[in-house]
Amino acid sequence: MAQQARKVAIVGTCPSSRLLAPYRDEEFEIWALAPDNAGDGVLPRITKWFEIHTDLALPGDPPWHTSYVEWLNRKSAEGAFELIASDPRNFPHATPFPKDELLARYGGLFFTSAPAWIFAYAIMSGAKVIGLFGLDMSSHEEYQRQRPAMHHWIDFAQRFHGVKVFAPLESDILSPMPLYGFDKSGPMGRKIEVRRKELVGRVAECDATIKKAEYERAYLKGALDDIDYMQTIWSGEQVRAMPEPETVGKVVNFSKGD
Fold it and tell me: Quick one: which of 92, 120, 213, 236 is 20 to 30 A from 221 by CA?
């Protein structure tokens, strides 16, 4: 009987889909990453944990680094999962992450995120089914820097290695990038572009209103400073109009014109 194809679920931290991974299906290995997934009971099951970073032991690290490293070392020592890490300073008993082997095999153009490294590792490990959970990569930074490389590995796995890649409907990681030169020519593309221009114009109007208000505020603040100065310095002028000390108490006969 042929050996069953290896199945892997890579689990990130996006809350919309990370708990939808096939934790109860023992055919799937659950590969986890990221501090937000750490902690007893956060994920129902973990087979392997990946920590790609080598900058967790630098001076000035945030306090959570310490507890995160301690948790990983404790759980891996207990045999809760296999820890695969790049930094022996923090994880002396972990299985070394094969960075050099991956670079030699696939080149270094598309390793722009931890999930990209882990996905390539899954391909090299012979996985035939890869599920992606909690890995939307939809924030601005991730979309620009990380998502295109992740799409490269997904396409590479499917086209050249026959890997089945899937994600839940709650995730948009498998949504393709727009086709340059064609994405604005369809009905939806035109609708989005018109809406975008409208919003750009409204933002510009708000910016102009804010700038006008800032100028007016600066003018009024200057006027208020002038009033404060006048009140502090010149409001004592009425004292000068009072009678001189030697005239105080004298009876003035107005009838004689004094």
Answer: 236
